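Can't paste images in this forum, so I'm doing it all in text. The chain is below; anyone willing to post the predicted structure tokens underneath?
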Amino acid sequence: MLRKGRGLEREGWRAATRSFFNGTVPKEGDFPVLEGHPKAQENAESAVRRYGLSRRQTAEGEKGKKVKEFQIYRWNPTSPSRPFLQSFFVDLATSGPMVLDVLQRIKAEQDPSLSYRRSCREGICGSCAMNIDGLNNLACLKPIDNDASRPSMITPLPHMFVVKDLVVDLSNFYQQYRSIEPWLKTKGKPENGREYRQSPAERKKLDGLYECILCACCSGACPEYWWNPESFLGPATLLQAYRWVSDSRDEYTAERLQALTEDRDKLHRCRRVGNCTANCPKSLDPEKAIETMKQEHLYPSFLRPLHSTLAV
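Text version of the structure:
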């Protein structure tokens, strides 16, 4: 959650960029604070540094234009042929700092037919998930690799049906998410007739779970989800399942767990590969959440230490 308003946030980036452009070190307060998302904060600071330094170098005439090649996956369903990588060249000195800025510029100035999803530009909606240089990420949070000597490759999320270019079909992903009934379920009205109360300690148990934005970066990186997308729910859906199982206000925990275990493949296909955690742009840990759900709710108490040892 942003601790500052959107206007202050934009001014923070401008102040930091001006500092690098002028050759001074920005103050700590120049960067807006992104609570709970250290990777987003780290990426943002890195992008501002690179952008500011690049502008400064250009202004001083040290390097002039800094053109970088971007190899982008292309496929059009209206004229189906083999997919291919198309090269585009962008001057980094006059581009924004993030990969999404490059895509926007290519679409506006070079090829309006390039298709991709985007919306908030702030790492909140999850629309611009794609594979960038081998890792799933959000284009709006991923800084451009400033090394112009090597091209960057941008492809759709792996092992998902491609609709067009960088747009993938997430229908199955959302159907699986809906199957866990991701909303508060109770068997009666609250005592005061107004709201369901929760202690600060109980609320804290949801940290690291509720922040998921359903971008599908984790599911797109999971080998088990690649091979069993119809049966295995995948890390994003299972993370959210654990979020509702852990919510003290929810009164259908037993029913939720029963639904997860009625088909063994839904949950137990997880092999703890760890790609989901490594590719999460929000620094969440789906692998840990899935294993914790198994340990706390699904294994008999006398088997928990044994399973924990074998799973390491």
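The first strand starts at residue 67 and ends at 74. Residues 2 and 301 are 41 Å apart (CA to CA).
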